[in-house]
Amino acid sequence: QVQLVESGGGLVQPGGSLRLSCAGSGSTFSIYVMGWYRQAPGKQRELVATISRSGYASYADFAKGRFTISRDNAKNTWYLQMNNLKPEDTAVYYCNWRDDWGQGTHVTVSS
């Protein structure tokens, strides 16, 4: 049974940084794409970034230059480093692996 557990969310001021983590268990996560999505209040869930098994990263336009996705295959964990956060980045962030989702971690960007 696959389990994904996010951590690292919280309240941060505009311009600040957060690092989200997603720890997976129950499968071999290194062989598929890992991803991060987010859902803001009243909006649909949207893709933030993905990273392939070889480490190739792809980002939504709003994330380019500010967010960095990475993975540690040995730990079955992937990360989302978010810098220069803006109020519009406020959302619940979810990690994704194939058809499985974490429970989400809240990120609030506010002064």
Summarize the structure in words.
The protein is mostly beta strands and about 110 residues long. It contains no helices and eleven strands. The mean pLDDT is about 95.
Summarize the helices and strands and which ones pair or pack.
Blueprint: E1 3-7, E2 10-12, E3 18-25, E4 34-39, E5 46-51, E6 57-59, E7 67-72, E8 77-82, E9 91-97, E10 100-101, E11 105-109
Parallel strand pairs: 2-11
Antiparallel strand pairs: 1-3, 3-8, 4-5, 4-9, 5-6, 7-8, 9-10, 9-11
Spatial shape: globular
Count every helix, treating DSSP H or I runs of 4 or more residues as helices.
0
Order of helices and strands: EEEEEEEEEEE
Care to count the β-strands?
11
Helix and strand content put the structural class at mainly beta
Radius of gyration, in angstroms, nearest whole number:
13 Å
* Biggest sheet record: 7 strands, mixed
Beta percentage is: over 45%
- The proportion of residues forming helix, as a percent range, comes to under 10%
Determine the N-to-C terminus distance.
40 Å
